[in-house]
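Structure ticket #2291
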Amino acid sequence: MYKKKETLIGYAFVAPALISFFVLVAFPFFFSIFLAFTKWNFLSGFKGIQWVGLENFKNLLEDKLFIQAIKNTFFYAITTVPVSIVISLILAYILNGKIFLRKFLRMCFFIPYISSIVALAAVFKFLFREEGPINDMLMKVNMISEPMKWLTNPSLSRVPIVLILIWSAIGFELIVYMAAIQNVPKELYEAADIDGANSFRKFWKITFPMISPTTFYLVVVRMIAAFKVFSAINIMTTGTQAKENTSMVVLIYGNAFSDYKFGYASAEAVVLFFIILAVTIVNFIGQKKWVHY
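Resolution: structure written out below.
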């Protein structure tokens, strides 16, 4: 009787999490896969769902905007993830040492991570507008002769997008790296000091290998996040450059909630899922060569 009661209590504690998972994750996931093979305008209700088979996926292969969105998404992932991780690692290594205002600097770097991406995007839009501080500074040092159209020129608007993605990611990565570095056994550094190793050699031979699992974790998590980037691009881009610099998630959102093409948007989401899955698998295969547990 006691065991039954204990079991029921256990199920009661687990039930909210399981219900949330099935309602908010499992059901939408499988329903989205089903919709990928249909043509459906949300306004027509469930009766308006039409089965079209692989038609949506065939159309995706001919959709130039979708192909461009894939290229852009890979560009954002490749340019932001390595840069933010390298910067975070260097900063974490420095801030773990005995430097002036260490706690204050930690807080300064962490604030962008806990801040709203909408607020950060608004700040960057102000900085990169034609009459903004960035153009003003570049003109004062004679690097440019006239204001650059950072926000309206499709070829230039990627710059503020990449910078805001890097800046917003550094805080989280910095905290994770600092925790990992602090857990490296001090005995290893003491042995290296006896051998006469300099700071760079201690970092490369001790710190980096010891925190490689943390680096791998950040690479996987940040790559997934980079492929799902939405808010920064949606806020920073308007007009012509919005299409040229769009990401897959922004395009999916537009097709689903602006054009009400839920079937087509679901097909795009399925492709995005398999791209993220493939990239994650590649990361797990590659980690065997450089991650030390």
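Closing remark: The chain has 14 helices and two strands.
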